[in-house]
Amino acid sequence: MPSDISQPRAGTSARVTSVLKDLDGLVHILTCGSVDDGKSTLIGRLLWDASDLPEDTRAGIARQAGPDGVPDVSLLLDGLVAEREQGITIDVAWRYFDSGRRRFVVIDSPGHEQYTRNMASGASHADVAVMLVDARHGVKKQTRRHAAILDLVGVRRVILAVNKMDLVGWDEARFREIERDFAAVAANFAFRSAVSLPVSARLGDGVARRSAAMPWHSGPTLLDALNEVPSRGTPDGGAFRMPVQTVLRGGQDFRGLAGTVCAGAVSVGDEICDVLSGRTARVKRIVTMDGDLAAAVAGQAVVVQLDTDIDVARGAVLSSPASLPAAARTLEVRFVWLADDPIDASHGLLLRTATDLVPVSHLAIKARLDLETLEEAEAAGCQTNDIVIASVELGRSAAVDPFTACRETGCFVLVDALTGGTLAGGIITAIGGTRGASDGQSFRLTREMLAKGLCRDLDPRDAEFRRRAEEVAIILRAAGVAVHLDDGNGD
Amino acid sequence: MSRRRSHLDVLEAESIHIFREAAAQFRKPVLLYSIGKDSTVLLHLARKAFYPQKPPFPLMHIDTTWKFRDMIAFRDRTARELGLELIVHTNEEGLRRGINPFDFAPSLYTDVMKTQALKQALDLHGFDAAFGGARRDEEASRAKERVFSFRAPGHRWDPRKQRPEMWRLLNGRLGTGESARVFPLSNWTEGDVWRYVLREKLDVVPLYMAADRPTIVRNGQILMVDDARMAPKPGESIVVRRIRFRTLGCYPLTAAIESHAADIESVAVETISATTSERQGRLIDHDQTGAMERKKQEGYF
Which one of B167, B285, B286 would you mutate to disrupt binding with A, by most A Cβ within 10 Å of its Cβ? Predict the structure, then answer.
């Protein structure tokens, strides 16, 4: 007989309110390090000591404890069948736990060099990274490589968890030595904070509880340090940016621009500018299904109605006129090559920004970054896991910022125009030439031409219309013809 | 306005962002509506994403003909009240062959009446993207699922062919014959779904709340006798128990739990302070180890 019966609860109102209330914050933690450093054990320990695990899960792990009675908390992190068989983690896995008034999202990515791409994609979502080293081995070349990847994708807070302190006799001198080495590594990068903490993930010391074995450690536990990280959705104070995702209509004359505010804030009455057309308008309404807002801040998904119709569409970035993004045709970039095959110049490439999709007319790789020495080596191509420095010329202007000025409008992925695959993820380091709307000597491929020919069978609003148009443009460019795709529309 | 944004505010905005990206990038999306609490939240977020417009895609339900009667009533009422197009698809070939959850292994039944039915329906209508309510916290194999998850021709899921997703950039450009599944609730937990149902005052199928219902116990699991097709076997008797369901599916395959949580608030409290993980109640998951992962490779949602 099932025995899982809950009794009616009386007088639980205090508990009810606390359990049902929204949590105060949400923080994404990237964990990086290799299996040997005890990464699964560290995440497992956080779950075991600091979260409310279902009791069936807890009991299952406790049953499998070894002769010393210490549960193998790494068992909390089983993955795909293929990976279990190989005994390593090769992809990015997401896990969720609540501790106190906070939601923590643990992004678990592999640390080995052949998985640099997995780590870079996992890290791009992180608010903080926990890097792991074995106290017996200290900071390794790998630590420097990891720090370089974190810095590239914009992680600004890092914690070095010096694990297995029990295996070095809880020795303070050993910890201080590693702490110094790490500070030297971190000084090469733009981290806002970089701290080292001594822990034993297997025993739990320094993870969620202070360690009696390390009375010399006056700093925070790992959990305390994670609780200090500002939550996702904290207003950022930058200049207003809202990439337009789609245009919504409703009732008479309503034309709203839907998007997520990705930097700064906007209020009703504010003047905004679309840098691609150079046109400005004022915010008339900020619409949501829960009612109109007086203002919206970074992280909010809204619909903006303007006082005059300036005909912007998907791909535009509504911005503060006081601090505009660039309407750029040439970009200096860094990217990590994610694809299995090396870059092939004959393939058509598209560059996907926040909401725009722009054909790449020329891409020149200049150098490959050696992540361990941080030196640049001249290079012309790139393959899986390489991080390269390149310049990109776009088929038309896109509204972008340098990544350090605005994260969301400063990152991109490179897309294979024919297969649709995501080939690379990168950041804009500088804006090159910013030619205006006129496109010089290029061939204008227009909607009218396509509607009479290749796209005869399609409605011009059909996404397939656009896709075929881009393919024609790519083929022409491969044949050496400069093409400007003029379909009077955004993405 | 200066109010601090809670974790649900952050999750809601992220889901709306995903809905809008998918609707802008895919040619013909559909929302797979499975009537449960996750679908309820999914649909509510879809409405928010496109307000004041209606969501620019229909709802579709894969009806195995073995869903709880309360679910079907709730489904039809929801579509009617919101004025949304609802497509209902059943694998007629499977029905003709008499595939049912009593006489066939759960894995075979699920494959024919759910997985195959879904593929048929997507192909029949030419949908290139389907929104689903899957969450990464549901099951180990889902922990690595992408927000835009791609399916090769024939709807096969190849874990090695999934696209990396970086920052908030979502790449929905399809290769020939590919289609996508889109999971706006990827980063929600079961507790979040209930908190949100409460916060937004959403209506859910009454089966989530405890009530006295006719049941039998089979293989140690409490099953509800929802209609006459479920006949007691020798030694089994129909007993009225106070039960509710944590997840909803086909009634002969969905185990109930005994509970006194009779309103959404008590259900949410019970769930968030739960002692067992969610998919315990789904019999199909216990078939074999790695069952969910194998089902996904075959095309199960």
Answer: B167
Q: At CA A110, angle to CA A108 and CA A111, rounded to 5?
A: 120
Measured between beta carbons, which residues in chain A are less than 8 angstroms from residue B292?
A: none
Same domain, A393 and A448: no
* Closest Cα in chain B, distance from residue A483 (Å): 21
Label residues B146-159 b or e (16+ Cβ within 10 Å = b). bbbbbbeeebebeb
Q: Tell me whether 0.90 is exceeded by the ipTM.
A: no
Q: With contact defined as beta carbons under 8 Å apart, do A151 and A191 qualify? A: yes
Q: Which residue, A289, A356, A297, is CA-closest to A325?
A: A356
pTM as predicted? 0.87
Domains of chain B: 7-194+290-298 (3.40.50.620), 205-286 (no CATH)
> Same domain, yes or no, for A25 and A172?
yes
Cross-chain Cβ contact A289/B48 below 8 Å: yes
In-domain check, residue A236:
no
B190 touches chain A (CB under 8 A): no
A228 inside 8 A of chain B by CB: no
Q: Is residue A338 part of a domain?
A: yes
Same domain? A74 vs A92 = yes
Q: Are B17 and A260 in contact (CB under 8 A)?
A: yes
- Of the candidates B4, B166, B173, the beta carbon closest to that of A121 is on B166
A69 with A211, same domain? yes
Of A7, A54, A303, the CB nearest to B275: A54
The shortest C-alpha distance from A172 to chain B (Å) reads 37
The reply to whether A340 touches chain B by the CB within 8 Å rule is no
Q: How far apart are CA A20 and CA B191, in angstroms?
A: 9
Residues of B in contact with A338 (CB under 8 A): 164
Alpha-carbon gap, residue A331 to A325, rounded angstroms: 13
| A412 found inside a domain | yes
3-state secondary structure string across A174-228:
HHHHHHHHHHHHHCCCCCCEEEEEECECCCCECCCECCCCCCCCCCCCHHHHHHC
Query: How close B114 gets to chain A, by Cα (Å)?
Result: 23
Looking at the fold, whether A61 and A168 belong to one and the same domain comes out as yes
Flag if B6 and A24 touch (Cβ within 8 Å).
Answer: yes
Instruction: Say yes or no: A459 and A385 in one domain.
Output: no
In a domain, A437, yes or no: no
Domain with A287 in it: 241-319
Interface of A with B in 114-153 (CB under 8 A): 117-118, 120-121, 124-125, 153
Nearest CA in chain A to B280: A56
The number of distinct structural domains making up chain A is 4
pLDDT 10s per residue in chain B (301 long)? 445 789 999 999 999 999 999 999 999 999 999 999 999 999 999 999 999 999 999 999 999 999 999 999 999 999 999 999 999 999 999 999 999 999 999 899 999 999 999 999 999 999 999 999 999 888 777 777 899 999 988 888 877 778 899 999 999 999 888 999 999 999 999 889 999 999 999 999 999 999 999 999 998 999 999 999 998 999 999 999 999 999 999 999 999 999 999 999 999 888 877 655 554 444 444 433 445 555 555 555 5
Is any Cβ of chain A less than 8 angstroms from the Cβ of B219? no
* Alpha carbon distance A297, A266 (integer Å): 7
